Amino acid sequence: MSEILRIENLHKSFGDLEVLKGIDLAVQAGETVVLLGSSGSGKSTMLRCLNFMETPTEGKIHLNGELIGTERGGRMRYREAELCALRARIGMVFQHFNLFPHMTVLENVMEGQVIVLGRGKPEAQDKAMAQLDRVGLAEKAAEYPARLSGGQKQRVAIARALAMDPEVMLFDEVTSALDPELVGEVLKTIRQLAEDGMTMLCVTHELGFAYHVANRVLFLHEGTILEQGEPQSILKAPATDRMSEFLEGHSLFKLPD
Amino acid sequence: MAHNWDFATILQNWPVLWVGIKGTVFIFVITAILGLGGGLIVGIARYSKSPFVSWPARAFVEVFRNTPVLVQIIWFYYAFPILTGIETDPFLAAVLGISLNTMAFSAEIYRAGIQSINRAQWEAGKAIGMNYNQTLRRIILPVAVKRVLPALTNRGIEVFKMSTLASVVGYVETLNQAKLISDLNFNPIESYTAVAVIFFVVLYPVVQGTYVLERMLRKGD
Questions:
Q1: Which chain A residues touch B131 with a CB distance below 8 Å?
Q2: Half-sphere exposure at residue B85, Cβ-oriented, CA atoms within 13 angstroms
Q3: Mutate to test the interface with B, among A100, A144, A156 (most CBs of B within 10 A)
């Protein structure tokens, strides 16, 4: 296994509010990392810093060994073009899908390939169809997003990110906005990706998913990683009271014996 | 007071009116394209995060939105050539006045449309590696413009009616030609009634069309 993502001393403040207070993490290729934590713990912010949807206040991020940005005067500086190129290499899926409403499903999945990667339309279409097939929605290619269910929308959003051939995928509470009966199909899709060897970081409240799919679980509390470990141990025997309380709060999830 | 309506003189002078109608349509097409097209550019500038871009755009909007078009046309005809040494003619003065005013109003429409788009759409574009301009052009504007299309067609209708203001500096359009007919035939009642009827006959079906358009757009959402 090789290291694909390295985060050093990541800090993020919004005004006076310090959300991330120094995160260090190294992710191996093919690893599935699940981020847990109560709301306000900084887990979404951390994810959003990795593809620079938020610019870190301090700290360094390396993707595949390359440092993102340049250091000048003791601070990291980022050029917009560099960040766009980086985001094209990191897929992100959002809680609210954020599909493009004026484009068909196929066009949604082709858009980034054509506009950002400069792929020709026939190639982009082939790739898009392959990814739609992978998430089980090839037959919906000509539909508009408004005609899809929440679960289908989210799977299209996953296909849209995958079509860019990302090196890492970020999932930001992707099942939180779904009706309970639609959660399963989306989790199944993500699980399949994990089995295919995709490197993934997932913010989720689905402890069952964390237990069965993650290689590693991080528990964030007040902007730091309070605990981390293999799901089978950390979810069953958390070391801190904080994490015990958090797990008890999620009483819906019953750990397998 | 009974008036003896006599439209015969109007019909006899139809070629004169026809020249005016052509002038109206011509200046409408030019000012609608410049005004609604230019408004998009000003609206985008107005939305910009950079104060060096948004501030001049805002100043432009405020100046041209808060001064009467009629005054602008007269100003461009009489004052502008003296201040700048650039000659204007009735057509140019009217085009400047109407287009700039329309740009200012439509810029605000476009800006409102852009602002109405959920911030998440910007994020979605950004997340697949699009830069600001790509996201604006490909993701935000198509939806924003569709959303403000009814407001823009309203603006277009205003532009069509505003074209009569060009008569004040002597541009040959419908109202100006009607005045000519009235002066020659002493029939101001029929002449100006004819102008009103012509505008109504042209605009009424267009306005009905915009209702249909609005309904179609709502269905698409």
A1: 80-81, 84
A2: 0
A3: A100
Residue of chain A with shortest Cα separation from B137: A115
* Nearest-neighbour CA in chain A from B68: distance (Å): 38
A239–B contact, CB cutoff 8 A: no
**How many other CB atoms are found less than 10 A from the CB of residue B83?**
9
Query: Per the CB < 8 Å rule, is B123 touching A53?
Result: yes
CB contact residues (below 8 A), chain A span 137-156, against chain B: 146
How far apart, in whole angstroms, are the C-alpha atoms of residue A114 and residue A208? Answer: 37
What Cα–Cα distance (Å) separates residue B117 from each residue in B28, B35, B50, B158?
30, 23, 20, 26
> Which of B61, B45, B33 minimizes the C-alpha distance to B133?
B45
What is the Cα–Cα distance from B30 to B32, expressed in whole angstroms?
A: 6
Chain B CB contacts of A80 under 8 Å are 131-132
| Structure token digits, residue B15 | 């070629």
CB B47 within 8 A of CB B141: no
In tens, the pLDDT along B110-168 reads: 999 999 999 999 999 999 999 999 999 999 999 999 999 989 999 999 999 999 999 99
| CATH class in words for B16-220 | mainly alpha
CA B161 to chain CA centroid, nearest Å? 8
From chain A, the residues in CB contact with B120 under 8 A are 94, 96, 98
Q: For residue A71, list its beta bridge partners.
A: A76
Query: What's the CA angle centered on A49, arms A116 and A211, to 5 degrees?
Result: 105
DSSP of A8-65, one letter per residue? EEEEEEETTEEEEEEEEEEEETT-EEEEE--TTSSHHHHHHHHTTSS--SEEEEEETT
The residue ranges of every structural domain in chain A are 3-249
- For chain B, give every domain's residue range: 16-220
| pLDDT profile of chain A (257 residues), mean per 10 | 91 95 95 93 95 95 94 90 96 96 96 97 97 96 95 96 97 92 92 95 92 95 94 91 89 57
Q: By CA distance, what is A84's nearest residue in B?
A: B129
CATH entry 3.40.50.720 includes domain A3-249 = no
CB contact under 8 A, A80 and B146: no
Q: Please report residues of B whose CB lies closer than 8 A to that of A114.
A: none
- ipTM associated with this complex: 0.92
